[in-house]
Amino acid sequence: MTTDSPTRADAASLRVGGQELELPIVHGTDGDDAVDIGKLRGETGLITLDPGYGNTGACTSAITFLDGEDGILRYRGYPIEQLAAQSTFLEVAYLLIWGELPTREQLDRFVSEVTHHTLIREEMRHFFDSFPSDAHPMAVLASGTVGMSNFYPDSQNIFDPDAVEITINRLIAKLPTLAAWSFKKAIGQPYVYPRNDLGYSANLLHMMFAVPSEAYEVNPKVAEALDLLLILHADHEQNASTATVRMVGSTHANLYASISAGISALWGPLHGGANEAVIDTLERIVADGGSVQKWVDKAKDPNDTFRLAGFGHRIYRNFDPRAKIIKSAAERVLAATGADDDLFEVAQRLEDVALNDEYFISRKLYPNVDFYSGMIYRAIGFPKTMFTNCFAIGRLPGWIAQWKEMMESPETKIGRPRQVYIGPDTRAYVAIEQR
Ligand code: CMC
User: What is the pTM of this model?
Assistant: First the structure.
């Protein structure tokens, strides 16, 4: 394939046999351009093959900009560093979903809507009772999320803006309640109801850690740190879980079903489950005597399936900007909670060794968002199995914004990749006695 100028050309030409096909180039805001191959199969009979979608744009999007070479992340144009320093999670959620920073009045209305929908239907208590106490909170959260569509049949009206808005508000309001109750179930404590006088993150802490028998004071520094983590996780363009939400949504499944699928995709240790895997690794290092080199060597061994969780990213070939913010927040939270976590020291040594190792340098493997987020969750008191639930609460506005953008786009079609079949050619059925 050739283009006039590799950067800003308007078309690329593809030569296949004697045929030459002109393919338009779609320009992104910041130079991330794409060859539109929409006509390729119709004109040549060929499709593209791109396992893992490393070179495939599935949509155009106006939500999040990510430059992996320079470590840049912006939501709706606003740099993540500015949002992390000055905004709140609910304001960022509004920005992602509705496209602009809210006015004071819009924000107050949104916060009030979310605050007044935090209760889940009382019948859902039985839902939690039906799981074993060692159920993974991610499994409970994914099931509870799709389960909510049973209580809110208006969520089927995916083209009715009022029904969509109330579904969005309910989801943002209720996901923390579902997440906290999945934890309470696991530790055998009574479910704690939401409190409308608390902010979003403070309320999550309250539902997680309060017990009916004594007063629980939310530490405002801890609530602030949790809010920051949620902001940093709020969107990350077409990652595996977001692509899943879009794919399921493209079938016109309701929003609860689409988000539940996203939660399941997030669970994997190569994606959101990495925060739990990082702490597992650090604990194993400590239990093993504290030598980080051995684990770095294990991660480098091509015959070992072990990977250093919290390192590497499909897009970032530089520091993940979120990891930088999280590392300094982790230091502040450890100081605020008085938690003297020996894992933090091991994490810093591991980071130092990896960043100076030729294997990691040559592959441009840097700490990602999950490397230090687990340290904060741990210092707050979340058990490892709850880390990815917190990630899901943070990612929810991004999933919703991406679903909404897809549903409103005239370009949207059902997501349906093709394949190159490499199995056996036609053959005749053989009766079982003759096999
Ligand atoms: N430890 C050791 N080697 C690694 C790691 C790692 N964490 N990550 C990548 N590599 C190696 C990989 O083996 C490959 O080496 P080679 O070229 O010799 O075969 C090379 O680096 C390129 O890796 P890749 O698997 O082709 O890269 P990818 O873009 O397909 O995978 C990734 C990205 C995030 C799945 C991967 O880096 C990984 O498994 N990291 C650990 C899990 C993790 O931290 N996930 C969280 C990602 S950020 C938040 C999120 O998405 O939720």
Answer: 0.94
